[in-house]
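note to self: dont lose this again. the chain is below, predicted strucutre after it. 176 aa total, dont forget to put it in the shared folder this time
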Amino acid sequence: MVLIAWMLACIGTASPYRASTPTPVATAITMASPEQIQDVSVPPQIATAISETLMARNLTHQPIRPTETFDAMGTTQQRMMWLAGRSGAANILLVESTVRPMGHIGGRYRWGVEVTITLAPGGDPARAINESFTIPITLSQVHEQEPDALTAAAPQIARRVGLLYDRYMRGVERAR
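---
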């Protein structure tokens, strides 16, 4: 048993990729809710968490505020093309989220935060990589809504943004 614990302790994770020079990343974050007719504003905590993750990799977070035109675009690819046209950043990052209520159990309110993260070089959004996942969130108050669920998911989303960026950059290095 001690041997197994020792072996697991020796297994290291790859260190985060760190850019050699500060590199700009144009970022757009969206949140949709099937329960709301109008758009729900993205809480600032999600941008802060993503910004901190990017700064740890020597990346500069350049937020781009989505417009009504952006929200009306149907696909991630169209949104990435829109971002690429409005930014001269080396990379573009799109974080799309949908927050859904999942029910009420024992005084707790369950939410599902569905997230798609897309990352691409700024000049070539067709070379994008993406990752989709769902984060289960439990909130304790009935008045807490979609922004609260997304705020609770912010650390996990930011961590996944970092992992996707690391994977992307390791692929770029292998292609050289």
